[in-house]
Recover the amino acids of this structure.
């Protein structure tokens, strides 16, 4: 079991023929991802070879779905053209679109987010500005290193890419059912709550690790959801305990105003919901170990 992504997932890559797309397509294939095609209208009809694996290039997402049965797209299209790429994926009704691209304007993100809603939310969006998701031993859709963990029974959802990697490495001996990097932009598709609900329903996830960061109220809303709907143990970490007030830190969504959005406020909200919260990633990993050890 896994959430959102399994070994049966058929993955296409929008922007596969660019430098970044080529690099990460090769890595995803090495992790066992079933990549069935790329999308580039200018190179439609050609094939790209990755260490002996021939991957066809299609002219559109719709054509790729028709020819291959693809159900996941990973998007490496540059920011200027990313909105059109996501809208194309939504119009083709692909079930999952993983938007890796960073630097997409809030206006563009709002536009394709609203478009997905108008189309009935048939396409789950992960990102933008995210590392994607991985189900270790099965499939990897994005840029998460595939060699830092193994299959296990921990579910991970994180705003931060680098903290995703660190937590996976810290708990590499225990392993993960799935790890999802949702991105830290002000407007994202899949939220902490979406991932929490999926992990709660996944029979092969025994414990959930949730990583947040300063800014906004996503973690507070997640705390309310956990209190009402999550029966599995959750441990958390909130990045930004030392961040200065009123300054944007790192991700575009990470801005603190007064007591709203601070790491301490988020920690208190999560702890009130029964979540054990570490002050460092390593402490959070220790909390997870202690719970699983019984």
């Amino acid at each position: 079991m896994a959430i959102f992504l399994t070994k049966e997932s058929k993955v296409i890559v929008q922007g596969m023929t660019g430098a970044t797309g080529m690099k990460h397509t090769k890595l995803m294939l090495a992790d066992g991802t079933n990549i069935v095609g790329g999308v580039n209208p200018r190179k439609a009809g050609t094939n790209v070879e990755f260490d002996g694996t021939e991957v066809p290039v299609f002219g559109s997402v719709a054509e790729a779905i028709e020819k291959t049965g693809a159900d996941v797209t990973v998007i490496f299209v540059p920011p200027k053209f990313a909105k059109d790429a996501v809208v194309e994926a939504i119009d083709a009704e692909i079930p999952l679109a993983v938007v890796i691209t960073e630097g997409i304007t809030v206006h563009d993100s709002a536009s394709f987010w609203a478009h997905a809603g108008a189309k009935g939310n048939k396409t789950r969006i992960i990102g933008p500005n995210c590392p994607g998701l991985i189900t270790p031993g099965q499939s990897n859709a994005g840029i998460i290193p595939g060699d830092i963990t193994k299959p296990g029974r921990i579910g991970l959802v994180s705003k931060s890419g680098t903290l995703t990697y660190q937590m996976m490495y810290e708990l590499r001996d225990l392993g993960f059912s799935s790890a999802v990097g949702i991105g830290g932009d002000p407007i994202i598709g899949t939220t902490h709550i979406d991932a929490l609900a999926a992990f709660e329903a996944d029979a092969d996830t025994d414990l959930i690790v949730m990583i947040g960061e300063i800014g906004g109220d996503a973690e507070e809303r997640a705390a309310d959801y956990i209190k009402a709907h999550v029966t599995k143990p959750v441990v958390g970490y909130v990045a930004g305990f030392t961040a200065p007030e009123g300054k944007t830190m790192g991700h575009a969504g990470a801005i603190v105003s007064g007591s709203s959005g601070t790491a301490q406020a988020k920690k208190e909200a999560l702890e009130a919901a029964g979540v054990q919260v570490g002050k460092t990633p390593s402490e959070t990993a220790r909390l997870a170990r202690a719970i699983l050890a019984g």
Notes: The chain has two domains: 11-126, 148-293. The mean pLDDT is 93. Residues 11-126 form a domain with the Rossmann fold fold (CATH 3.40.50.720). The two ends are 23 Å apart (CA to CA).
